[in-house]
Amino acid sequence: MKKIVMSVVLVNLLAACASHPPAEAPAPVAEKSAPTAKAAPASATSAQVAVDPLNDPASILAGRSVYYPFDVSAVQEADKPLVQAHGKYLAEHAARKVRLEGNCDERGSNEYNLALGQRRADGVKKMLELSGAQASQLESVSYGEEKPRASAHNEAAWSQNRRTDLNYAK
Amino acid sequence: MRFWRHGWAILLLAYSSLAAAVMEIEIIGAGENQIPIALVPFGGDEKLATEINQVVAGDLQRSGLFRLVDPAGKSPHVVSEVEYADWQVRGADALNIGRVNALPDGRIEVQFRLLDVVKQTDLGGHAVSAAAGQVRAVGHRIADLIYEKLTGDRGVFSTRIAYVNRQSGRYKLIVADSDGYNEQVVLSLGEPIMSPAWSPDGSHLAYVSFENGHAAVYVQSLYTRQRKLIANFEGSNSAPAWAPDGALMALVLTRDGSSQIYLIRPDGTGLRRITFSGAIDTEPHFSPDGQFLLFTSDRGGSAQIYRMAVSGGPAERMTFGGGNNYSPRYRQDGKAFVFSHRENGRFYIATQDFQSGQMELLSAGGWEKKPSYAPNGKLILYASEGRGRGILATVSSDARIKQNMYTQSGDAREPVWGPLP
Predict the structure, then answer these.
(1) pTM for this structure?
(2) Cβ atoms within 10 A of the Cβ of B410, count?
(3) Looking at the complex, does the CB of residue B301 fall below 8 Å from at least one CB of chain A?
């Protein structure tokens, strides 16, 4: 019982941190907690039957960003469950559309980063399609290094800026 | 090429109502063989003379090729008033004298003469005139004529630059004089603007705008301000470059997969793909003869510079060794190129000679990107950083003289040097 409570707390913490990039070694935590994330909201569903899982802060779908190492555009292992969950959600909600917005840190030229950001967004798009989403639900764009979330010249800022955001249409 | 003859006068008139922003210019280093020159403030209208003198002195000094000699009390305005011995004593090799007048219709007229103090000869006289208020344009023109006479190279002080100013989420496409003064806002948006590129005759700018929610390429006239959306395919449309004849452009699209290079006419017709790498191919730049493109690609695993024929076919890798390389641009003689080099976390401005294949770093490194040659190949403009802001900077092609140009506010990004007027 104690173990389950701990997991729920962890999931909530993760959800609260969803807008931040992973810390130094986030992969094991995310992978271990992912299965419990599905179990955790089960107790709550009886009270909130009509909740769209997209709006459930405890759902893995609350995570809307995937992060990358420098000059890498492949979705990292730690983020695959997140992308696959969104793909499954989109398959089950055909009316939903999502815009995939690729971003880069400021290292490299603006144009190279625009290309890299596009490749990041396209990589997420491809994985969403493999998970069941339709191409018509997806649009991929790149902002390159033009819309940084953090503006400092250091790894703390850069790691936040190397990401693809899943931006659902309202 | 329609506007070639009177290009600079027309453009200055079109934007003359806009105020000039405050600039601060910081010069670092000195040339090896500087020509000592005395600029005697012109006779005639004293206020105009002082203003023009400041512009000419600033231009010559920034080139790194001149050392200004103080006239110290001597002020000849015509050849008959010149005692060469006065100037030999002061160490001047060249002397510039003349008169400026404000004509009844407000036009500014300058007549000046350049003298060789060592040989005690007259190097020739010139007359420059411009509309009222074009004091800086007159100064730049005079500096060009002095520079050309004494160095044998084309002067570039009358040329213009384009860049993007970013401030609090506002993006402005700016055209300014080569010294950063006389800023004119060509376009102002709440979304990013990238990669301005001058048409060869200086009449149009191509650029990337995000106003449609993604990167799309526009071509805009600097005279009529009319603009045309020439590439707006799904994904990213970017990196416009003009062929030397102005009739063809290269750009980068992701509509068929990864970023690949295409050719297109400036009116948006005739689209044709020319790279088929599946990697990132971007930042094309035409050779001066229009036959080749330099571009950035990560097809070898990391960003490096490649060259290919505009007609298509295989690409040849140009940069090797440690680090990454981006943003290549041909020198006007086609014998070398400038680019941005990243190594150990720093960005440098670098050049490479095609024949030797040797890379030379022109800067100490830092946050230095997006270099472009002045039309005479003697100076390189690039984006740098100072006092926590994005700034414009130039370095002489021999790496001896650097200058930082602090614009009034915001971040200066994506600079590119324009063609000769």
Answers:
(1) 0.86
(2) 17
(3) no
